[in-house]
Amino acid sequence: MCLDEDTTSMSQMTSMLHDASRNTKYETAITKAIQAFIQEHGRPPVVLDIGQGTGLLSMLAVRAGAEDVYGAELYEPLAQIAREVTTLNCGDRIKVIAKRSTDLRVGESGDLPRRADMCINEIYDSALLGEGCLPAFRHALANLLVDKPVMVPAGAEVHGVLLSSKFLRSRHDISTAEFSEGVPVARNPRAAACRGGRRALPLQGAELEDAVNLSEPFHALSFRFGESFPEEGCRSRKVCVPGRKQAMES
């Protein structure tokens, strides 16, 4: 096995392929959406698969009755796997394109012969938005999809909760840090105002053993992926809680 195959086999893609519950829900949603499209329009849909991976969702779409599927997969080793797997299972009904979806073009000399009727995808992280789904959808709606396309998933919500965690606080405050016992880290007097870089700390809420919820879970954002999105920017919401807010988990 080559290095790229080793890397692929160790990636999150493997666990996703083995997630039977997730895959069954995707199959049900894709099948219902395609059957509804055929009933309404009298023809099968052309489907765009963003973040095609190994081609699983594309094959589910073909099995459900899609006319053709065009998939964008940036990572070439995965794209090559998808080509081999989809060709064996679906012949030439699925086209695998080793590009970002935002680099795809429609037209005779482009990647898609015409705009797609439907978009299927799995480009979400555990906090929903971290893998850049919104920019991909904005581009697809403007350049790759018909007006009012079918989207699977059709939408999503973000919920949050305010919490307190000494561990998370320690990631932002080194005022008590020491090089060794009794030897503190020297800091500029203005350093307390520095909150560090913008890099996120990847962890799950269940891993925070010292976390204490300071609020009830609340609804933060809603999205309908086949429609226009709010302009980029910050959103705020007031939540009254006792104690001191140190982090928000979404």
TrEMBL record:
InterPro entries, A to Z: Arg_MeTrfase, SAM-dependent_MTases_sf
Keywords tagged on the record: Methyltransferase, S-adenosyl-L-methionine, Transferase
GO molecular function: histone methyltransferase activity; protein-arginine N-methyltransferase activity
GO biological process: methylation
Domain of life: Eukaryota
Entries under CDD domains matching the protein: AdoMet_MTases
Protein name, as recorded: Protein arginine N-methyltransferase
The species this protein was found in: Ectocarpus siliculosus (Brown alga)
Record lineage: Eukaryota, Sar, Stramenopiles, Ochrophyta, PX clade
